[in-house]
Design a protein that fits this description.
It contains 20 helices and 15 strands. The chain is α/β, with parallel strands linked by helices. It has a domain of about 230 residues: Rossmann fold, CATH 3.40.50.1100. A six-stranded mixed beta sheet has the order 3-4-14-9-10-13, sandwiched between helices. Strands 8-5-6-7-15 form a five-stranded parallel beta sheet, sandwiched between helices. Strand 3 and strand 4 form a beta hairpin. Helix 3 crosses helix 4.
């Protein structure tokens, strides 16, 4: 298995997994994808159903991940995966259980991990992969990441204490919930630096990309990425689509409703579908920052500036530049790297591109199965109340976005909603919707009262460079 950049117009040889793991973003600014997606047969799916039931989530994860990784010996890879998905790390030993809901919906519980968010499903694996590969090479790495709320704590929980790893995690100043801030800022580790940026998530993401585009600085400080620009994140997320499908009774295709901001979560679903997982529709759910919904409805991709990016009650989706969207466009356009480079480098410099008149966009529903929708604050409150009343389940606002869009999508058949986080991370909205405080796992009691460790900087790449250089 080799990997290519979405912007490689020179036809360079594909790279090994271990190299792109540490590199993150390609030198040409593109994102890595496999040269081709492995195919999974119906017979293999049945074998995996038995395996998942008998041996658990880690055993399934190993079988899927080994399809993408051929430069780590199987025994070592199995150990990496077993450590990442040890049942003791998760609130439920099933790791990703599913629950039947009203109206033909199912809920895939992805937030049982150390930081109570779906990002743990990938970040726990990424932490183990980094530790293994850096140890094998005798090297170190400086992680520079951006978070709108959940990536940061998931990454820091996965990477703290890992030898050879420093972390600089950027977040938008004042845009995360108090609980999310406390999760990150309460970590007291000299190798982990929390950086609050004056701006929105997209500004943080832009700073990360600017530093990764500085070849000399990137090489000197050995910059790496934990955001979903790192292929290993998506690879890990592919697994829970298979797990959820296997745990929903029956063999028919199912659809997945996915809260979507940066497009990483649903991009993993796209890859699972390309591998042969029987997915009928990928239902993309956004909040009021509906850049992605606009594209799938019209073919026009228009990014929005800081002033236009709204602060909502599902803040992890307050994103107007979806990093992983480029991976899908690469597949949409038949892997034409020159066209992708033109769109994302040239046309997007003016803030938008439009594929509405292209045959590729006209056929995308049949070929790739995407439908989309958006929800509002009131929609979220209504769905949180409805699900609690009908199903006895308390869901977070992002999951509520997906439930709302799924209900109105017109998609027939079974729909699996992907949970984003435990409700405790968004207590203010939960109380507004239900009048009840969300349950809090014991591990998080009192974290808001712990000392805060955070540095504030302006929206300036040189300020970030100076911080990293110490």
């Amino acid at each position: 298995m080799r990997y290519v950049s979405t912007r490689d117009t020179a036809g360079l040889p594909g790279k090994r997994f271990s190299d792109i793991l540490l590199e993150g973003l390609a030198a040409d600014g593109g994102l890595y994808l496999p040269e081709s997606y492995p195919a999974v047969s119906a017979e293999t799916l049945e074998d995996w159903r038995v395996l998942l039931e008998r041996d658990g989530y880690a055993a399934l994860a190993f079988e899927i991940i080994r399809l993408f990784v051929d430069d780590i010996p199987d025994d070592d890879l199995r150990g990496i995966v077993d450590r990442a998905y040890a049942p003791t790390k998760f609130l439920d030993p099933a790791i990703v259980p599913v629950t039947a809901m009203a109206d033909g919906l199912w809920l895939a519980h992805l937030s049982n991990g150390p930081s109570a968010a779906f990002k743990d499903m990938a970040m726990q694996l990424l932490g183990e992969l980094f530790a293994y590969e850096l140890g094998r090479r005798g090297e170190s790495i400086t992680i520079v990441g951006a978070t709108s709320g959940d990536t940061g704590s998931s990454a820091e929980y996965a990477l703290r204490g890992k030898p050879g790893v420093r972390v600089f995690m950027l977040s938008p100043l004042g845009r995360m919930t108090p609980f999310q801030q406390a999760q990150m800022f309460s970590i007291d580790d000299p190798a982990i630096v929390n950086v609050a940026v004056e701006g929105v998530f997209d500004d943080c993401q832009d700073l990360v990309k600017e530093l990764n585009g500085d070849a000399e600085f990137k090489a000197r400080h050995r910059l790496g990425a934990v955001n979903s620009i790192n292929w290993a994140r998506l690879m890990a997320q592919v697994v829970y689509y298979f797990a959820a499908w296997l745990r929903v009774p029956g063999d028919e295709p199912v659809s997945f409703a996915v809260p979507s901001g940066n497009f990483g979560n649903i991009a993993a679903g796209h890859i699972a579908r390309e591998m042969g997982l029987p997915i009928h529709r990928l239902i993309l759910a956004t909040n009021e920052n509906n850049v992605l919904e606009e594209f799938f409805g019209t073919g026009r991709y228009r990014i929005r500036g800081t002033e236009e990016t709204l602060a909502t009650s599902s803040p992890s989706m307050d994103i107007s530049k979806a990093s992983n969207f480029e991976r899908f466009v690469f597949d949409l356009l038949g892997r034409d790297a020159a066209r992708v480079r033109s769109l994302f480098v040239d046309e997007l410099a003016d803030g938008e591109f439009d594929l509405s008149g292209t045959p590729e966009f006209a056929g995308q529903l049949d070929r790739f199965g995407f439908v989309s929708g958006a929800s509002t604050h009131q929609d979220r409150l209504d769905e949180i109340r409805r699900v609690l009343a009908d199903d006895g389940l308390m869901i977070d606002p992002h999951t509520a976005d997906a439930v709302h869009v799924a209900r109105l999508s017109g998609v027939e058949g079974r729909i699996v909603v992907l949970e984003t986080a435990l409700p405790v991370k968004f207590a203010e909205t939960i109380v507004e919707a239900t009048g009840q405080e969300p349950p809090r796992p014991e591990r998080f009691v009192g974290i808001e009262d712990l000392p805060r460790h955070v540095v504030e900087i302006p929206r300036d790449a040189n300020a970030l460079r100076a911080l990293i250089e110490g």
